[in-house]
Amino acid sequence: MAPNPVPMAVSPFRRPLPRPSSSPPSPPDPDPDLLRHLLQLSRDVSPSPPPSWHASLRVGPNFSSVPRNFKQLSLLFEELLRHTRSCDFAMPRSASLCFREMFLVFHRVKALFHDSSGRSRAFHLFRAERLAAELHEQVVDLATLLDILPLAELPVSEDVRDLVRLLLRQFRRSSTAVEPAALSLRRDVLELIAGIERGAVPDRDALQGIFLRLGLDDSRSCGREIDRLERDIGDCAADHRWAPVMVALAGILRYAKCVLFGASIPRSDSSAAAGGKQSSSALENITVPADFRCPISLDLMRDPVVVATGQTYDREPIVRWIGSGHATCPKSGQPLAHLELVPNRALKNLIARWCHDNNVPFDASDRNVTATVTSNNKKPADRDITTLAGTNKAALEAARMTASFLVGELAVAPSTEAAIRVVHELRLLVKHGSDNRAFVAEAGAIPLLLPLLQSDDAGLQLNAVTALLNLSIMEANKRRIMHTDGAVDLFIHILAKGATWRAKENAAATVFSLTTVHSYRRRLGRHPRVVELLLQMARVGPANAKKDAMAAIMGLAGDRENTGRLVEAGVVRAALEVAGEPEAAEEAVAVLAAVAKKGGAEAVAEAEGAVAKLVGVLRRGSDWARESAAAALVEVCRQSGAEVVAELVAVPGIEWVIWELMEAGTERARRKAAALARICRRWAAAVEAERTARYSEMSITAPSTTVS
What we know:
Layout: H1 31-44, H2 62-84, H3 93-117, H4 121-126, H5 128-148, H6 158-172, H7 180-197, H8 204-213, H9 219-235, H10 243-261, H11 269-274, E1 304-306, E2 312-314, H12 315-323, E3 340-343, H13 345-357, E4 371-372, H14 385-390, H15 393-411, H16 416-429, H17 433-442, H18 445-449, H19 458-471, H20 475-482, H21 487-497, H22 501-514, H23 518-526, H24 530-540, H25 543-556, H26 560-569, H27 571-578, H28 585-606, H29 610-620, H30 623-640, H31 642-649, H32 654-664, H33 667-701
Antiparallel strand pairs: 1-2, 1-3, 3-4
Helix pairs in contact: 1-2, 1-3, 2-6, 3-5, 5-6, 7-15, 9-10, 10-15, 15-16, 15-17, 16-19, 19-22, 21-22, 22-25, 24-25, 25-28, 26-28, 27-28, 28-29, 28-30, 29-30, 30-33, 32-33
């Protein structure tokens, strides 16, 4: 391509310089300060992509020459700074204006290179033309400024003048051309993606050749590229041309990482454990706040929405839940009055801020204010990587091949160490979307993972139970797990003898997931050890274990047949104890509400301090905890008689607590608070009527007196 010449006498002030995406600071006013800033900026620009990258990833000649040229310009600023320290030199106004404009150009170039340095190789490859055009525009502006810079009026040596003229000629030769090697590599990658879309398994040697040209020569570099590529996909979701290709390449990277370099070594047991409830590889060593995880998928929520009961879920899992025929809230078990989903904007903003602070990819694009579960009006820019992958044929085929390869490797794993690596990769794979979970299960992973729950290796046991937890999110996989011989006994083994508390927590979370199916809830509740071990975990486990154990018990309590077993095992006392711990209070109070509703109201009423504890939750609990506490009190008061109501009314300030909940609680909490207020008023009216009747009876039967 012919170079684009720059006119010799074009004023930079006839056409304003393009605005950067984030405005640079204003240039300093005094000339010495301005020169010092220019000197520092000319030294700060680093080459992008890094020199270590393969030559095929060089976007264009500017990306290697501009940083060198900027450093050479520093000689001009150094010499001018030496002269400005003397009092006999004043910067010409035209030169000062040129340097101020250069300051803005330098800032934009620095920002461009800084942004590019954190991008994936695929980003440079597929957006090469745009990157080259953006840098070319800045080089043209800089050439224009150097052209009109009054060098003759500046006290610099002839060598510096010659250097500036040489740099000007180089800047004039700037173009938007992309290196042929990069274009050739891109064609090969596109052909690879097209072949996978047709269902062809890529040739290993061809795949390795492409990866070497991408500079990916081991499992670690592939992992880093996947992390960066997932972030870039979120930024480029509106690019209808390249975003689908980048999504497909992300799936191929996972497949090739396993095929070419083998399953990766788990970083640590703690990081492996964290993966059970996180949504992307960027979360590998980060603990996601519990309030940011969807109660259904256990993943970080990307699009939180509120259902009719006031509970918040991620949009995709709750749409699947309702679409499969459920008409109840998964967390509270309450019937859904309507199927409208309202975006939880406040929570979404908090999640987006947390993701930004922790360098986790998050698609913060806006959605409609309200939507029903039957609507599907999202634009491509509104989807995260999991949603995009679910509609990308090449990504789906790559995920299917990855699942098949890993399950095949697990079936013939020659040692515990080899099994650890493969199960670790499976755990990472099933964190990403329902399609991956379906492919892994269809490949036959569940019968291979279940026996590993008895492994003596703590890491292998943890990865296996965590993978099963994520697999159990899908309805079809629940059936596969429960229909496997000995599956329930194997989860009981983890609950009783798990090597780590995290393994026990994930086993309890799996039980909770399985209880969403009515027949499995009843089957698990009938097992003599399930309730016993969950209650033991709730009593003696750490905070997260108590939370997961109470959630599993809450799932079991949704069946009336299980209530008697739960009460006999001491669930009321255990729940009252856990209700005093902030981390698990919501689940514990929900257990009390579920037990009271399903026939255990008498047991709750008879427990010492139960009413006082529930009132305390009404005063200070979270929205969901207050809602469950009000529901429990309503059931207990209705089914246990006037003595419980009298105990409730005797609590100081109970009227104000109920009134405040009616005003500021969730919709369900307001209904329950209103019902509680009616119960209290009826009791008070009955007591007053009884007192009046007794007084009247005493007046009638009292002997009359005569006044003499």
